[in-house]
Design brief:
5-stranded antiparallel beta sheet; Molybdopterin biosynthesis moea protein, domain 2; alpha+beta; globular; two-stranded antiparallel ribbon; Hypothetical protein af1432
């Protein structure tokens, strides 16, 4: 699609940004491919820009109706996941039409990066974790595929893989899945069977590709061979499985669970930066963290010193430690060992 300069004054909701837009601190405020809505337009106007690049031909860009529509569609997909897992738990075969409907619904939001991140952050409840997790991993896998410059066909397959990655849990007893305390060794061994169960269920679905099946089977494999169910290493693990694994870890850690509260996204980012390069694919982790953090730009946070501040800069070399504007000062968390982000507000 052709890129053209357009006056910010002439920009309208529905236009698609054709280049990354930066603020005065050099941080990405709006990423290429984002579809403009009133909120993003206000952010662009606040930057004082005169012109920005947009895609001249928007026919291939899927424009939606904003965050409220996204939430409604998200809830519809949630119901589909519940029905799907209920069918599996009662021994029924998976309805491929239901899978296609959910995949297409999620794909229709492919250009709405900001709404995706907002919705994932908001739609979290302990009781619904298994269901929201399936949707969130699908959406995050879609974003990672876009950031890795995958073509549409691959991104679509990733959406399906993310959506179906945990369907094997439909065969795990609910008392194990929802246990509030620590699992016994025997219970954990049962949990570890869900990727294989998922593979067995999914291979019966018409037109499911080998790529998707491998993603379901391998999403708990790890680069150093410490994963399950096969103990595969690095090059033995399918690329789709590596992407779903990163999405899976991030969403699991930032969600409320029956045995713990959600962890602040920036603590999760720090953990993934520090601890997961030996277990998760470093290229996927790098691309994911660099991009996901940019969508917290402009968000307000509560700091450990009691102050409330706004995230104004994401350091690409230390994503977990942004610069915060609090009152009339700027706090560079990469230089402040005693101050940290407690929560997003």
């Amino acid at each position: 699609m052709k890129k053209v300069f357009v006056s910010v004054q002439d920009c309208q909701p529905g236009m698609a940004i054709a280049e990354d837009i930066y603020n005065e601190y050099g941080a990405i405020v709006v990423t290429e491919g984002t579809v403009l809505d009133e909120y993003i337009l206000s952010k662009v106007r606040d930057l004082g820009l005169v012109k920005i690049k947009i895609y001249e031909d928007n026919e291939d860009m899927i424009v939606a109706g904003g965050t409220e529509l996204f939430r409604a569609q998200y809830n519809e997909n949630l119901t589909s996941v519940k029905n799907l897992l209920h069918d599996i738990s009662t021994g029924k075969e998976v309805d491929s039409n239901k899978v296609s409907l959910v995949t297409n619904s999620l794909l229709s939001r492919i250009n709405e990066n900001r709404d995706i991140v907002i919705c994932i952050n908001e739609m979290r409840t302990t009781d619904e974790y298994l269901y929201t997790h399936s949707i969130n991993v699908s959406l995050l896998s879609m974003l990672i595929g876009k950031w890795l410059r995958y073509d549409y066909k691959k991104v679509k397959a990733l959406v399906t893989a993310g959506f179906l990655h945990d369907i094997g849990k439909g065969r795990i007893p609910s008392e194990i899945l929802n246990k509030p305390g620590a699992l016994t060794n025997e219970e954990f061994e049962e949990i570890k069977k869900h990727p294989a169960y998922g593979f067995q269920i999914a291979e019966k679905i018409p037109e499911i590709s080998e790529d998707i099946l491998k993603a379901i089977l391998m999403h708990h494999e790890r680069e150093d061979g410490s994963g399950y169910p096969l103990g595969l290493k690095s090059e033995q693990i399918h690329d789709f499985a590596k992407i779903v694994a990163v999405a899976d870890v991030y969403d699991a850690m930032t969600s409320n669970r029956v045995y713990r509260n959600m962890i602040c996204p920036f603590d999760v980012i720090e953990t993934m930066e520090r601890d997961n390069f030996g277990t998760l694919d470093h290229r996927v982790v790098n691309v994911f963290l660099k991009n996901i953090a940019s969508y917290y730009m402009g968000d307000f946070v509560k700091l450990s010193n009691g102050e409330i501040g706004e995230i104004v800069y994401i350091n690409p070399f230390n994503v977990a430690k942004p610069i915060i504007r609090a009152a009339n000062t700027y706090i560079d968390l990469s230089n402040e060992n005693k101050i940290k982000i407690l929560e997003l507000i």
